[in-house]
Amino acid sequence: MKFFVTGVNGQLGHDIMNELSSRSYEGIGSDIAPKYSGIQDDSPVTKMPYISLDITDKEAVTRILKETAPDVVVHCAAWTAVDLAEDADKQETVRKINAAGTQYIASACKELDCKMIYLSTDYVFDGQGTTPWKPDCKDYKPLNVYGQTKYEGELAIEEHVKKFFTVRIAWVFGVNGKNFIKTMLNLGKTHDHLTVVNDQTGSPTYTYDLARLLVDMIQTDKYGRYHATNEGLCTWYEFACEIFKQAGMNVSVAPVSSDEYPAKAKRPSNSRMDKSKLTANGFTPLPTWQDALSRYLKEIDY
């Protein structure tokens, strides 16, 4: 089985390539940036083929996917700078990447009749209430440009691809790239006290665990929409407290509301994700986020 993975310079794409390598699958990585930027030379990822690809170039997407003829496309590439996406001069670019680029890939997958995994987000919902969002819920009301364009990507997948997995994820952290944990650890080196929002609830998700699930998933024909995060819930404040506790750092953290910590893009307060469809279809739930955090800190030598 041959895999084509977009966005391999990111956290999840990097770990998917490593997982494919560990299982001796053929994987072709792609990204718009130089080859494996920031990834150590001894990573298994660097030993696999890489193609520079701008997913907003329709002709290039069609040509490269036809030439490589993968059995599976795992589409991780996306504009993920949520606040920057709100800038008027950036919105066209965000839509080209998250919506149009995804449509180009979906159209190519249709021609190839190959499987496709599309990584989406909890941001496609309005984040209200306290009830976990179900994967087949139709109540889409994105709060920001990022969420809206990722939703448009979902529509493109479902329009063009028969054998698709749309997997919504949230609060992602991995070895390669920036994330909340690294931000907290860096701030903890120079600050004794921090304030973190305490009115947004979700589930942190380790890309190492997620990559294993996705590679398991693609070997089945149980297509459709799924939610996949590590087990358990917390607020960003509770997450920060656990990070410092496990890292053994003496940093006090105070809870604040989102109103006290304004951002350009509005965030969902409820990112609870119903993951029962995973177990119903025979997939193993991811470990708890506390366990994932412990393993992650060891992986980055903390």
Task: Give a short summary of the structure.
This protein has 302 residues and is an alpha/beta fold. It has helices at residues 11-22, 58-68, 91-112, 145-160, 180-190, 207-218, 236-247, 276-280, 289-299; strands at 2-6, 26-31, 50-52, 72-75, 115-121, 164-169, 172-173, 193-197, 201-202, 205-206, 224-227, 234-235, 252-256. Helix 1 (11-22) crosses helix 6, helix 2 runs parallel beside helix 3 (91-112) and helix 5 crosses helix 7 (236-247).
Which secondary structure elements does this structure contain, and how are they paired or packed?
Elements: E1 2-6, H1 11-22, E2 26-31, E3 50-52, H2 58-68, E4 72-75, H3 91-112, E5 115-121, H4 145-160, E6 164-169, E7 172-173, H5 180-190, E8 193-197, E9 201-202, E10 205-206, H6 207-218, E11 224-227, E12 234-235, H7 236-247, E13 252-256, H8 276-280, H9 289-299
Parallel strand pairs: 1-2, 1-4, 2-3, 4-5, 5-6, 6-11, 7-10, 8-13
Antiparallel strand pairs: 9-12
Q: Cα-atom Rg, whole angstroms? A: 19 Å
The number of distinct helices, counting runs of at least 4 residues, comes to 9
Write the element-wise H/E pattern from the N-terminal end onward: EHEEHEHEHEEHEEEHEEHEHH
Task: State the end-to-end CA separation.
Answer: 36 Å
Task: Specify the helix fraction band.
Answer: 25-40%
**Would you count the extended β strands for me?**
13
Task: Specify the overall morphology.
Answer: globular
Strand order of the largest sheet: 3-2-1-4-5-6-11
Percentage beta strand: 15-25%
Average pLDDT over all residues: 94
Q: Sheet bearing the most strands, described?
A: 7 strands, parallel
Secondary structural class: alpha/beta
Uncertain runs: none
